[in-house]
Task: inverse folding
DNA sequence: GCTAGGCAGGAACCCCTCCTCCCCT
């Protein structure tokens, strides 16, 4: 199965009120993380980045000042995605709604995609007990990637890709079948 | 902890609705 694992950093939690400031993605085929096939860009928001978000993500005005505008960044991301199935942690309620809202705000034409929420992999594997946040999943898998910085999309996507690989291998070792629901979504054309 | 939004699981109850917690920046 051809997957693109991705992560967004944003200026807040509300797709209606906040903006994307960073996109990172990494490709996975048949259970292999293709570390040479990555995508990463900062995105220039129309509003200033709140101080608490700069503190949380490390992303400041200096990072996004010359970055592509949202439309340009989302089209480039779409090209990278190709015909892959997208994967994001809490993507059903966070990343995909942010992409939908950003496309709508900038009147960007969209195309259908399928996506998997990696929260569902965690719930499938460990049931309702305990948390399913990325930190909790990492702890359960005893996973530590010292070079991957949390809350930087490039670091989070490395961590997420490895957690997805490990969870998937426990649920469907041959990587041929998808162990959780694939949802319909849309991204920029 | 707040923002938005409503999954998933459990309780109460008998089949759907309500409630609480969750998860993302």
Result:
């Amino acid at each position: 199965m051809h997957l693109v694992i991705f992560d967004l950093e944003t200026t807040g939690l509300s797709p209606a009120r906040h903006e994307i400031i960073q996109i990172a993605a990494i490709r996975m085929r048949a259970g292999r993380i293709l570390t040479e096939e990555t995508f990463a860009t900062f995105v220039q928001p129309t509003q200033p980045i709140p101080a608490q978000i700069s503190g949380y993500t490390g992303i400041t005005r200096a990072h996004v000042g010359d970055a592509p505008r949202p439309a340009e960044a989302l089209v480039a991301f779409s090209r990278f995605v190709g015909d892959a199935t997208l994967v994001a942690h809490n993507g059903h309620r966070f990343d995909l709604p942010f992409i939908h809202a950003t496309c709508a705000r900038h009147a960007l034409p969209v195309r259908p995609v399928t996506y998997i929420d990696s929260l569902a992999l965690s719930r499938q594997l460990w049931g309702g007990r305990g948390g399913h946040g990325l930190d909790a999943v990492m702890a359960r898998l005893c996973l530590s990637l010292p070079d991957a910085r949390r809350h930087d999309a490039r670091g989070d996507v490395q961590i997420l890709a490895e957690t997805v690989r490990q969870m998937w291998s426990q649920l469907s070792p041959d990587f041929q079948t998808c162990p959780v629901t694939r949802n319909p979504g849309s991204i920029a054309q």
